[in-house]
């Protein structure tokens, strides 16, 4: 088995969650998900099965918990091309520096067919002018145009109202419904701009966050707008170059990280997007000049990576041969990754975006 084959594992279709466990229930029921707790130490890794609602028992008043407050955009559009051919456009990221949000990078299929048109119709109120491919040749460059210039809504408002929730294609073939608008959004989502949810945060309810606050856990937020880097497959980890994603870190958060370390607390990330944001920001030499600004990260974390900020995290169970899986292997080690996933598979945990969670607690001192 070579090093890349190590990150493949047999995931049966019936182990992929197509709805979250709390589907159809009140938002405060999100803590019903199962939680695999792996305590990783130098000599052994202890795994236990819990409920996500029990996380208050796993965190300490000295800890800092960091979540990604990006908000999922209804970024998927089913389209019909001239002649009746069906297609799809997924708005991935905007490269518009203004507040108009007209200019986008998008995934599209069938890409070659769509490229033959100057303009395509996304929805009743929105057209897309095709500007060509981006430099990677994998994405379309689009300019979004209102079909009615007198429409007072912003581009983002139209997209939100007329697009579809972009659930992954392995969930009901990507065909979302009204339930997904709630299910595929964290309860603390604030800043609109993601083409996918930061799924590790889906398990948190306002009740759970309130319990953590009462215990004294410091709960803070950053923003990373999830784009292609988080969901496109990895074919060659040696030459893989992730698509840049936009993120922002506040001065208050960075101060809290320093204070947490000073009191001997743990910096705990909720999801791989938080880890990538923090580790990216920690590598800026003059980071004090970049607080509260949107920055680009194309950081690719894999085994051998030296973490500067994070050692513990909550995360879902990820697809084989994905960037997420490589990141988790870098955090807890390949052998521990194998132990965690072997246990999860045998114990019938629910996998991927709508699946169960894990708390990976790494003792760097042992």
Short characterization:
With 366 residues, the protein is an alpha/beta fold. The chain has helices at 111-114, 155-162, 178-183, 206-215, 228-231, 251-262, 272-281, 323-332, 334-346, and strands spanning 34-40, 45-51, 64-68, 70-72, 76-80, 86-94, 103-109, 119-123, 126-133, 140-146, 191-194, 218-225, 245-248, 267-270, 295-297, 312-316, 357-362. The chain has 9 helices and 17 strands.
From the alpha-carbon coordinates, what is the Rg to the nearest angstrom? 21 Å
How far apart are the termini?
30 Å
Q: How many beta strands in the DSSP annotation?
A: 17
User: Which strand-content bin applies to the residues?
Assistant: 25-35%
Q: How much helix, percentage-wise, in residues? A: 10-25%
What integer is the average pLDDT?
Answer: 90
CATH architecture of the largest domain: 3-Layer(aba) Sandwich
CATH homology superfamily of the largest domain: QueA-like
The H/E string reads EEEEEEEHEEEHHEHEHEHEHEEHHE
Would you tell me which CATH topology of the largest domain applies?
QueA-like
Poorly predicted runs: none
Biggest β-sheet strands, sense, barrel: 9 strands, mixed
Spatial order of strands in the largest sheet = 2-1-17-16-14-3-12-13-15
- Structural category: alpha/beta
Q: How many structural units, i.e. domains?
A: 2
């Amino acid at each position: 088995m070579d090093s890349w084959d190590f990150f493949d594992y047999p995931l049966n279709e019936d182990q992929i969650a197509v709805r979250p466990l709390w589907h159809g229930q009140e938002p405060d029921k999100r803590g019903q998900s199962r939680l695999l707790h792996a305590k990783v130490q130098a000599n052994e890794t202890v795994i236990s099965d819990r409920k996500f609602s029990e996380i208050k028992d796993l965190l300490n008043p000295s800890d800092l918990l960091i979540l990604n407050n990006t908000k999922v955009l209804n970024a998927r559009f089913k389209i019909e091309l001239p002649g009746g051919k069906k297609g799809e456009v997924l708005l991935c990221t905007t490269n518009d520096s203004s507040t108009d949000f007209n200019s986008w990078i998008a995934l599209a299929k069938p890409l070659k067919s769509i490229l033959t048109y100057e303009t395509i119709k996304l929805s009743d109120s929105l057209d897309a002018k095709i500007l060509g491919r981006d430099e990677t040749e994998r994405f379309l460059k689009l300019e979004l145009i209102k079909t009615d210039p007198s429409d007072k809504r912003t581009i983002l408002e139209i997209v939100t109202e007329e697009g579809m929730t972009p659930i992954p294609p392995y969930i009901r073939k990507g065909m979302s419904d009204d339930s997904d608008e709630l299910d595929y959004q964290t309860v603390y989502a604030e800043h609109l701009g993601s083409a996918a949810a930061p799924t590790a945060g889906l398990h948190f309810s306002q009740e759970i966050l309130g319990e953590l606050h009462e215990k004294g856990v410091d709960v803070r937020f950053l923003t990373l707008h999830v784009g292609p880097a988080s969901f496109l497959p990895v074919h060659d980890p040696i030459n893989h170059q992730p698509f840049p994603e936009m993120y922002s870190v506040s001065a208050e958060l960075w101060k809290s990280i320093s204070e947490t370390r000073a009191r001997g607390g743990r910096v705990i990330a909720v999801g791989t997007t938080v880890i990538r944001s923090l580790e990216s920001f920690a590598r800026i030499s003059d980071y004090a000049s970049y607080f509260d600004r949107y920055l680009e990260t194309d950081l690719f974390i894999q085994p051998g990576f030296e973490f500067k900020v994070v050692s513990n995290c909550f995360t879902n169970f990820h697809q084989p041969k994905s960037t997420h899986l490589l990141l988790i292997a870098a955090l807890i080690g390949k052998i521990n990754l194998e132990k965690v996933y072997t246990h999860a598979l045998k114990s019938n945990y629910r996998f991927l975006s709508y699946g169960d969670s894990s708390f990976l607690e790494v003792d760097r001192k042992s």
